[in-house]
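Thread: Newbie trying to understand structure tokens

Hi all, I'm a second-year student working on a class project, and my supervisor (Dr. K.) asked me to get a predicted structure for one chain before our next meeting. I've only ever worked with sequences, so writing a 3D structure as a token string is new to me. If someone could post the tokens and maybe explain what I'm looking at, I'd be very grateful. Here's the chain:
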Amino acid sequence: MRANGRFLPDAQACAMNSTMSLRLASVIAVAALICTGCGHRAAGPLSVPADHSAADRSVLAGEWEYEDGGAVVLRLDDQGNGTYAFKDGRFETIQLNGRTWIGKWSQKENDREGGFVVNLSADAVEGDGTWWYERIGANTSPSEKGGTFHLTRKTSMTRLGDTPPAP
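---
Reply by user tm_fold:
Sure, no problem. This is what the structure looks like when written as tokens:
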């Protein structure tokens, strides 16, 4: 290989090729990110890391009112996992990082599942979220859009177990 008008030994040429390949890969990755941002979907799946959150999930425990047109009550344990009555629904927390709550939902009765992201308020008593489909029946690439929702804390599990002081 030639560089600046002189021939390079094989080891130097190989190192130069590797450096050029890395730079090209970086440029391609940045271009892909920019192009992906142009086609932004309002509600779509996210890539969620496998590691579970370091945040204390017990702040999610209790009953939450989920509003998306109608209202449904979510009952969550100290890990942020639980149920809701609509279509035999299940709610699973994947990660809680600061005020960002990421998880999955499923509905046994209508054979659907998907994901969600919630941005909690600073006091963790409410939040606004986005949900999407990941599967409808056998279709693992559904074209149906998800939506947005609002959560409001009704109770916490620790408060449910508290006994009032004696008079």
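A couple of things are worth pointing out once you decode it. The first helix runs from residue 10 to 38. Residues 57-161 form a domain with the Lipocalin fold (CATH 2.40.128.20). Feel free to ask follow-ups in this thread.
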